[in-house]
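Supplementary Methods. Inverse-folding protocol.

Structures were first reduced to a discrete structure-token string of length 244. This string, shown here, constituted the complete conditioning input.
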């Protein structure tokens, strides 16, 4: 019995020593640098954030998605995503060549803005015509994590299909944030927006596959937004929504 006890103490001591060495090794590891991992050994035109491709010049050879528009394919609350989205967020996308940075025309804007608590979200079935998986109205007033996507069968390029130049055509997602939660007027075509990511084959609505992006990187209300009137009382959605 005494020998077994000594052996057990030796095993425990060895385990503690290994933990100490592992901790020292982890502390010596370099912290990741934004953009480093995606740019290293790659000739793609990644932005430093690694969230999207740089748009360097207009490429007239790329097909135009001007008749397409992104939709809301998911909306939920995430503890780490910040405040509720109480400002209207409009989305559009365009194609980008990953090797040259050449970009296409823009798609149309989403049919309505994404805003927490709205009864008229831009869902795949139409404005306000959301599947049961996407809550609208008062039940979504705490939501801060929208997923924006485009039906895979409608786009002119497949991101995984190699182009003649050896590159690929991706889709950068752009967002415009309005100032008035009650304003449903879409932005003009020449509005100054921001790129928030690129669309990936990551979501389904029913049996339909979507290229999509979860927009949680730059919450427009993290510095504070006023709660719209429809989130101040539990009023059910009623009436009709008009699309742009």
């Amino acid at each position: 019995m005494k020998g077994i006890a000594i052996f057990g103490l030796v095993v425990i001591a060895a385990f503690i020593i290994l933990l100490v060495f592992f901790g020292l090794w982890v502390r010596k590891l370099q912290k990741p640098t934004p953009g480093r991992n995606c740019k290293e050994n790659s000739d793609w035109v990644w932005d430093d954030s690694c969230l999207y491709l740089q748009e360097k010049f207009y490429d007239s050879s790329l097909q135009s998605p001007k008749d397409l528009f992104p939709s809301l394919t998911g909306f939920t609350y995430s503890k780490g995503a910040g405040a509720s989205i109480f400002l209207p967020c409009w989305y559009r996308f365009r194609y980008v060549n990953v090797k040259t940075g050449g970009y296409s025309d823009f798609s149309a804007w989403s049919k309505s803005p994404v805003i927490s608590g709205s009864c008229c979200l831009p869902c795949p079935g139409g404005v306000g015509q959301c599947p049961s998986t996407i809550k609208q109205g008062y039940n979504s007033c705490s939501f801060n994590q929208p997923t924006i996507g485009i039906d895979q069968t409608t786009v002119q390029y497949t991101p995984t299909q190699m182009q003649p130049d050896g590159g690929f055509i991706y889709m950068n997602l752009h967002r415009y944030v309005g100032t008035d939660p009650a304003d449903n007027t879409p932005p003009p075509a020449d509005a100054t927006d921001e790129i928030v990511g690129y669309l990936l084959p990551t979501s389904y609505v029913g049996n339909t596959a979507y290229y999509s992006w979860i927009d949680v990187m730059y919450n427009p209300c993290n510095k504070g937004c006023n709660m719209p009137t429809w989130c101040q009382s539990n009023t059910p959605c009623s009436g009709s929504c008009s699309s742009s």
